[in-house]
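User: Just a sanity check before I run the rest of the batch. Below are the structure tokens for the first item. I only need the designed sequence back.
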């Protein structure tokens, strides 16, 4: 017996180095195969495979900890089983003749853009809409509160931030009165956004009888502005006939007439007509996920009656998309369709190389590309990282303008004064890849022209940022900005 044990131990001492070696090889092969099959960027794949083989075990561990994209897989798992909501809108889809008269002939650049966005979103372009820009909370909040007071059937409200302050309380009171009138009210607030004020507004809404849910609530007692998988959408639909969307949260800082301590400029939009169905579709999906309640019945049906002449379409995007990065396709197509001008306003500018190249190509084709960013960013890390990457666009002919205080949160893009896109999405990886967003595109020349002139007015009072100024930053500042840029995919 003792001799048998010695034989087994001797065999183990002989074999364990070989077993360990084969185990390490197997782990490296598995990790490399995963990187080759999943990673789409060749340079990233080569880098990870090199690390895996040059640093056995350690390289594979680092890859599985940092290299695997858990954001998309977690988003897909979380929302598995949530059926895409598709409301009936065929009566509002324009025919070929209407498309030619509103956008241009079949081969026109904007017609090609409309075709691409339709394929990317699987949603039709809808006719008969009225789109009204609202200048920040000063115009948007009274319009939204009036719509709530006039509601007869239903109110759907989604907001990333809904603060417990005078503005939030005004909305809570109005929503409570709607519930008392028998209106079906549903309010969805992001789990992080609900903690921007303390105590959160959810308690007050519940006291008013308002059915409220939080999207992916967190146990962390404080807000963290860089968290992932946030519902960053801002949507309100009243009676299925009037909608509001854009970049505006519900908080006192956006109501400038109140003279808040930290004022924020923004742009919101009132939508009427069939396009409201696209807002309602997205809210319904998000509500089903968060509340496990399906909104159905006459109260939650859209009104497809024509309200104007604008062609418009909703663009939903988020980490659960099967074709993640769909908004990048829309941006690239819009930039490629530009013939004369592209004007962009965004509070956070941290695009990847592909988006920067699309901007550069447009500028080098002779298109005037104007980027309007806030002079003072409300998130210092984002501002530093953004400055560190401006050379990518300044060196190819794009114009960068810094808008004066107060901080401008507007998210807007206009091409040739004929096409415009607005909504909740920023020009950064967080919006394009990590959070749930909603934009609207419109081919209405009157609306696009109005928005183009609005950006021109902002540019007129802005200061120009040049490549020479960016290059002249001191060494400590360049190091600070460069380090911040390393975190740009997560800011």
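Assistant: Here's the designed sequence for the first item:
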């Amino acid at each position: 017996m003792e001799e048998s044990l010695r034989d087994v131990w001797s065999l183990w001492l002989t074999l364990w180095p070989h077993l360990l070696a084969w185990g390490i090889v197997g782990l490296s092969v598995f990790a490399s195969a995963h990187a080759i099959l999943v990673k789409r960027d060749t340079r990233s794949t080569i880098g990870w495979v090199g690390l895996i083989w040059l640093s056995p075990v350690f390289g594979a561990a680092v890859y599985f900890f940092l290299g695997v994209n858990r954001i998309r897989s977690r988003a897909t798992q979380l929302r598995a089983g949530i059926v895409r909501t598709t409301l009936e809108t065929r009566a509002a889809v324009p025919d070929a003749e209407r498309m030619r008269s509103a956008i241009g002939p079949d081969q026109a650049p904007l017609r090609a853009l409309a075709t691409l966005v339709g394929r990317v979103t699987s949603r039709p372009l809808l006719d008969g809409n009225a789109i009204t820009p609202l200048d920040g909370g000063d115009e948007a909040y009274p319009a939204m509160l009036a719509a709530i007071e006039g509601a007869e059937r239903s109110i759907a409200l989604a907001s990333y931030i809904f603060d417990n302050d005078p503005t939030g309380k005004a909305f809570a009171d109005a929503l409570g009165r709607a519930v008392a009138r028998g209106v079906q009210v549903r309010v969805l607030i992001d789990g992080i956004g609900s903690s921007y004020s303390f105590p959160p507004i959810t308690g007050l809404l519940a006291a008013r009888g308002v059915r409220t849910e939080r999207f992916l609530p967190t146990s962390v007692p404080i807000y963290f502005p860089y968290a992932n998988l946030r519902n960053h959408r801002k949507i309100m639909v009243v009676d299925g006939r009037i909608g509001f969307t854009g970049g505006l949260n519900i908080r006192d800082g956006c109501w400038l007439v109140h003279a808040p301590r930290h004022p924020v400029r923004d742009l919101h939009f009132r939508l009427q007509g069939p396009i409201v169905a696209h807002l309602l579709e997205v809210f319904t999906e998000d509500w089903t996920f968060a509340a496990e309640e399906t909104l159905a019945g006459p109260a939650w049906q859209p009104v497809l009656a024509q309200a104007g002449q604008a062609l418009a379409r909703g663009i939903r995007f988020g980490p659960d998309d099967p074709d993640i990065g769909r908004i990048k396709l829309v941006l690239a197509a819009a930039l490629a369709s530009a013939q004369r001008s592209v004007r962009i306003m965004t509070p956070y500018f941290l695009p990847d190389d592909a988006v920067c190249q699309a901007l550069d190509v447009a500028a080098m084709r002779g298109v005037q590309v104007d980027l309007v960013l806030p002079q003072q960013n409300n998130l210092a890390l984002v501002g530093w990282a953004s400055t560190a990457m401006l050379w990518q666009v300044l060196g190819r002919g794009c114009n960068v303008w810094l808008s004066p205080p107060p901080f401008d949160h507007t998210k807007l893009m206009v091409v040739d004064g004929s096409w415009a896109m607005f909504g909740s999405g920023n020009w950064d990886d967080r919006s394009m890849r990590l959070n749930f967003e909603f934009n609207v595109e419109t081919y209405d020349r009157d609306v696009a022209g109005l928005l183009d002139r609005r950006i021109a007015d902002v540019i007129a009072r802005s200061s120009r940022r040049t490549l020479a100024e960016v290059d002249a930053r001191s060494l400590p500042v360049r190091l600070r900005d460069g380090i911040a840029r390393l975190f740009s995919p997560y800011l």
